[in-house]
Amino acid sequence: MSDPFKQLRDALDQFATERDWDQFHSPKNLAMALTVEAAELQECFQWLTEAQSRELDEQQLAAVRDEIADVQLYLIRLAGKLDVDIEAACRAKMEKNVEKYPADQVKGSAKKYTHYQD
After folding, report:
1. pTM (2 decimals)?
2. InterPro entries of this UniProt entry (predicted)?
3. Which of 39, 54, 58, 109 is 20 to 30 A from residue 65's alpha carbon, by CA?
């Protein structure tokens, strides 16, 4: 695990311990909280056009930053509970995606990988 992820994980552990919240932070509960935060991130873009979603004003961008942080912090907390190295998991998933989505077959297409399998 890279140092920034470890530092954040340790800070989150301390934050929860100081508040006696560890009792509530089961993997199930953290996964559920993560989906709530992801929905709050999605809400920042609700009703915006594609163009508007690319041209956020400072207030909108601040809200998006906060929600991205909430999502990431819950991911780090969940990963810590399950002893998952986020950086290693992401690299492994990227390798899987290279295999699932061969550039010569999927370039410029939004189709799911299952549409490219023989």
Report:
1. 0.87
2. dCTP_Pyrophosphatase, DCTPP
3. 109
What whole-number distance in Å separates Cα of residue 92 and Cα of residue 100?
A: 13
pLDDT tens for each residue of the chain, 118 residues long: 678 899 999 999 999 999 999 999 999 999 999 999 999 999 999 999 999 999 999 999 999 999 999 999 999 999 999 999 999 999 999 999 999 999 998 899 888 777 766 5
Residue-number span of the structural domain to which 76 is assigned: 3-84
Say yes or no: 57 and 94 in one domain.
Answer: no
How far apart are the C-alpha atoms of 84 and 49, rounded to whole Å? 37
Sign of the dihedral through C-alpha 51, 54, 56, 61: positive
> Do 35 and 74 lie in a common domain?
yes
Q: Are residues 72 and 114 in the same domain?
A: no
The total number of structural domains in the chain stands at 2
CA-to-CA distance for 13 and 16, rounded, in angstroms?
5
Q: Is 117 helix (H, G, I), strand (E, B) or coil?
A: coil
